[in-house]
Amino acid sequence: MAKKYIDVMDTTFRDGFQSVFGGRVLMDDFFPAVEAAKEAGITHFEFGGGARFQSLFFYLQENAFEMMDGFREIVGPDANLQVLSRGINTVMLDTGSREMIELFAKLFAKHGTTTVRNFDALNDVNNLMYSGEMIKKHGMNHEVVVTIMDLPPGCKGAHDVAFYEKTLRNILDSGIEFDSVCFKDASGTANPHKVYETIAMARKLLGESVHLRLHTHETAGVSVASYLAALEAGANGIDMAASPVSGGTSQPDILTMLHATKGTNYNLGDLQLDKILKYEERLKECLADYMIPPEATQVSPLIPFSPMPGGALTANTQMMRDNGDLDKFDDVIKAMKEVVERGGYGTSVTPVSQFYWQQAYANVMFGPWKQIAPGYGRMVLGYFGKTPVEPDPEIVKLASEKLKLEPTTENPLDIADRDETKSIAHWKKVLEEEGLETSEENIFIAASCDKKGIAFLKGESPLMVRKGKEKDCGEENMAGNYTVVVDGKQYSVQVVEGSGDVQITPAANAAPAAEAAAAPAPAAGGAGSIEIHSQTPGNVWKILKNPGDKIEEGEVIMILEAMKMEIDIAAPQAGTIKTINVNVNDSVADGQLLATME
Fold first, then answer.
1. Is the pTM for the entire model greater than 0.70?
2. How many C-beta neighbours within 10 Å does residue 550 have?
3. What pLDDT score was predicted for residue 229?
């Protein structure tokens, strides 16, 4: 009797890179490994989308569309090249307008995409309808997704088999056209028994002809057991990665799954051990200079308490490492339980996982619910669609007050369509004003990456690749803009990756040296002088007030950026700004003096 064929998607070059390196791998470094994967007989790859879209423009000085073209050229016309798309966000940072969603579909089809895995973190089926329509309109396969996880211990109300059946029935009732169905567990927390029951339910509901997949991560240590449970329940496909970007925060290793299915009735794509071994050896050679964070290779027993997706975990820990507050990681993970429970149980997958992380981080750094992370606040207020259960009314009220927004039940696409900054015409005008070509690719790059996209198109984006295994993780990535004081004079220092020169210039609009030095004692500032310090490491994004400005209590003086979150620095009382002690783009430490007022 012939073994059941199981379609294997190799996630190495998208989710693997995201889960281990935060997506920061240069195409010329990994393309030889793609050739080796092709020679090993792999024909189904995840090659782009998700956070691997922005990371190329933000950190690698590379064009994601050119990377996709190069990938397709290597693997040939018949390979199934798949991308990850976030429903109404597609690969953008925020909800897209309808015309931007169609532009996404048009461009990704143009640049080699065969299949789009299309998910919504809230499992709001309305958020999948228009994007799914555009994916099919432009000739790609649509893999519709139900996002899954286990709730933190002690929580209940969603994310059981009945909830997933309701979501799947909503997809079927909506009339969304799809080619396959995936249950996506970005945190790897769904327990194997629930996985079996969920896939069995889906197989019964969908019939035998529908291609059914499971996607999970090894983060919580149960991925192999979950894949075996899914296969036993009737799944047709699973996702795996190649060492050294397998296991840990990523997908199970291809060799591991080949071993785990020995003696079973499953044929994992006719993959052969010797050829996979050669492929993995080639990949290790290609990535030899890249720093692998230790947490990327580990299974964490804390993850089911959060839950934190593998694809986001290392990106967040790397930012904490850069900020110098990695010691707070366990506290943030523990704080996520309350954030998930009070936020309405959206699945912990992008962008909701980042909302959870940012809010938990804020709760740890500033005190519980003292600040509302903008994304988390907008989610509980309904601006991304309907959460699986109603968020805590107290948190909704707090978010409304902090963000100055009313709750809404309006279709997020209608809100986006009214926003002229999400129109093609707006971004075409921006490109024209910058003297840049107004191609459809450039319009989408600018719209999806905002100022960082413009910086890329102007050749001004940074190269921030974490290479050098011999370097200490805490000191490895020092690229950025800094302000230092030497002999009483303030200088702006730009540190770059690689062998580039270090640029040092007198800081523009620098505060007097006496003000820019270490935080002065209150007496030095005069009677009644008030010092305002940072409560977290971060970067100065905007300065809204100047010395001499009158300011009311609670009015924002400047905005920091930390963990992809805007941190308002507000006046503790009414008064007058005396000094501004930092500049835009400065890196600031926890407790650093930012401003004084009187």
1. yes
2. 11
3. 98
